[in-house]
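sorry for the late reply, my laptop died twice this morning and i had to redo everyting from scratch. anyway the thing you sent over, i finally got around to it. pasting the sequence first so we're on the same page, its 218 residues, then the predicted structure underneath. double check i copied it right bc i was rushing
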Amino acid sequence: MTDTTASPEPKKNRQWIRQLVDFGALAAFMISYFVSRDMILATWVLVGASGLALIIGYAVERRFAPLPLITGLFALVFGLLTVLTHDDLYVKLKLTVQNGLLAVILLGSIPLKKYPFKALLGSAIKVNDAAWRTLTLRYGLYFLAVAILNEIFRSPAAVTALWHALGRDTPNPNDVWTSFRGVLWIAASIFGLSQVPLIMKNMTKDEEPGPISPDTGI
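ok and here's the structure:
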């Protein structure tokens, strides 16, 4: 007798493929920068990698997942502004604008008892309303923290002042910001993993959740 029960493995595999694709886009950007020390060239790579990530994401999931789509479009828009104007301010501002808007939307929705985070994650997880409220608060605060930290690490004056306060020589601001971008992705992955116990405890559907990273890497 053939077992017709649907296996959760394909869905779980798609989640990990998505993570690898997103990390590949960020890794390509960072490698191209540290090899060339040219932020504009690295941004060209980011634009191409962002477009490729969207295409692969659609091929894997047969749809555009809302959160990766939003961050991918932000990367394309701010990346193109950078390469067209030859001003790397735009690619650095992307994190501030993107995360700032997400923070305002998520945190502003809590008093209204509306949880747009459901729409952002699509069908990635199924949890009760109490868990959605907690996740909305946690991710909203995370996005706000990232926007604030990005404003610090994208500013040459702030970075120089911080390094001098630590008794270190004046750094290359682009080196610092690009390194910050990599550390941020790792922090986002850890943050996503840390939410799994809450999700599993409050699931309304019997399936194993994967990590939900607030940073798509692009």
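The radius of gyration is 19 Å.
thats about all i looked at so far, will dig more tmrw
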